[in-house]
Amino acid sequence: MIRTISVDEEGARRDIDIYSEEGFRLLSGLWARSGWSQRTYHEIAWLGVPIWQLPQDMMMMQELIWKLRPDVIVETGLALGGSAIFYASLLELIGHGHVISVEVMVQKPVRSTVAAHPLGKRTTQIEGSSIDDDIVARVRGMIDADARVLVVLDSNHTRAHVRQELEKYSPFVGPDGYLVVFDGNMETLSDAADGSPEWIDDNPAAATRDFLADHPEFEVDSHYNRLGATYCPDGFLRRRGEGTSELARRSADAQEAAVRAAARRFETPKAKLERALVEERQRHEHAEKKLREDVASLQAKLDRLYASSTWRAGRLVARVAGPFRRSR
To answer: For residues 187 and 198, is the Cβ–Cβ distance under 8 A?
Structure first.
């Protein structure tokens, strides 16, 4: 059994335990690079439509969308339409939301496939460059002022283009919202058979770092890179909010309720009885706590009333007794 992997660092060899955190990250990166070279991501379809993405990234996008419950998802880069249908399927489960896809040239077969799909009703395609000001204005015109927006950038992957996209679409994202930049892994693929030496500096990850240096209101959320293998390293950007936002609270409550509901479907009769007893005990404890709080509040009011009455009685006595004291 293989337990370690050897790496050369500046001429020195070092063995890394594959079961360690460092080993996991190293192997994940190698697997993602090798899989990209083999075009394994071309083998995936979502509900019948090809989606050129890494499954790990799609799972993280699913978590993010369920958490945010956005009203609108703006994606730049439609490709074969699979990502638009993927996002639309999640919005369908949530019960609201629309996907706006911007593509420099929407191929007729792609447009037809998306339009004919059962989830195509939740999508709109806009043809044109994602950094064209008229296109950006058109997208903005389709979004309500108070809408929760998730932005996904996955079109032209040059550093200059992505940098402009970040500037033009980041204002769509509100506090605690997210902007996701795909294909930052290009900078690790410059030596791949189908890669390019220019990718070392000319890639979405470099554009993201440039953007973050100028926009401290955004930060990398590494939680969505925790599966290791990814095509968007440090690409999940969160706009900072003040404290725990109402959005975060609602999403946490919704996830907790969904977990509870799912668990109850598989409960045994004994587990149901035990849960009912626990819930009944909790209701009694809550009622008892509320009663204690009400009694304490009432007592405080009585104390204040007594103090006020005593003070007023003292004033009255002083006024009545005053003349007698002066006459003496």
So the answer is: no
Is residue 54 within a helix (H) or strand (E), and if so which, with residue range?
A: none
| Number of domains comprising the chain | 3
Question: What's the pLDDT at 255?
Answer: 56
Strands 45-46 and 49-50: antiparallel
Asked, for residue 225, whether it belongs to a domain, the answer is yes
Name the 3-class secondary structure at 168: helix
Residue 255 belongs to some domain of the structure:
no
- Please check whether residues 30 and 50 belong to one and the same domain: no
Q: Parallel, antiparallel, or unpaired for β 218-220 and 123-127?
A: unpaired
pLDDT per position as a tens digit, 38-47 = 888 888 899 9
Coil, strand or helix at 131: coil
The whole-model pTM stands at: 0.71
Residue of 85, 201, 212, 104 lying closest to 155 (CA atoms): 104
CA 51 – CA 61 distance, rounded (Å): 13
Q: What is the dihedral of CA 96, 101, 106, 108, to 10 degrees?
A: -10
How many Cα atoms within 13 Å fall on the side-chain side of residue 221?
19
**Is the same domain home to 90 and 178?**
yes
pLDDT number for residue 325: 56
The DSSP string of 253-272 is HHHHHHHHHHHHTT--HHHH
CA torsion 137-141-146-147 (nearest 10°) is: -90
Name the nearest CA neighbour of 231 among 98, 5, 58. Answer: 58
For 99, the token pair is: 């996907």
How far, CA to CA in Å, does 174 sit from each of 60, 151, 239? Answer: 20, 11, 7
Give residue-wise pLDDT tens across range 77-99.
999 999 999 999 999 999 999 99
